[in-house]
Amino acid sequence: MPADAPPPAPGAVLFACNFNQVRSPMAEALLKRLVGDRVYVDSCGLKRAALVHDDLRDEDVPAGVDPFARAVMAELGCDLARHRPKIFDDLEDFSFDLVISLTPEAQHRAVELARSRAADIEYWPTHDPTLTDGSREARLEAYRAVRDTLARRIAARFSGLGRSAIDLAPDGAL
Description:
By secondary structure, the chain is α/β, with parallel strands linked by helices. Helices cover about 35% and strands about 15% of the residues. The strands form two sheets. The protein has a four-stranded parallel beta sheet, with helices on both faces. A two-stranded antiparallel sheet has the order 3-4.
């Protein structure tokens, strides 16, 4: 393989971050949009999401995807409403060829897990948009920046498997 050729396509990819409510679900949805069902894609976090009260079921349940993440992904036609945050221990198995960590904490956990498994580990430090203060629009812009950065990185890493970063983003986003 030439030195500048992209790495071979993995059969299964896991994106990992802290709570599986913002960055890793966004990355999961973007890669699924890019490659369809040609690659198995999942995501998880290190810690369980906070509990919120579900009035319909009258019980406390883990919070879902961050509303701002849902909104900016909906701009691309990606619906994150069904995504349920999970942690590493919730995964049915750990037969991933590639684990992409989006936070330093997730990177440490991925390295620990990879010691006993044949999985490649990549670290993509990704800004946490939940730390952004300001107006609703300013916060949405921070989430869009993370989404677009992930889209470009995914398109570059998995080039040849699907559409380009331009196809993943709305007009004028990238």
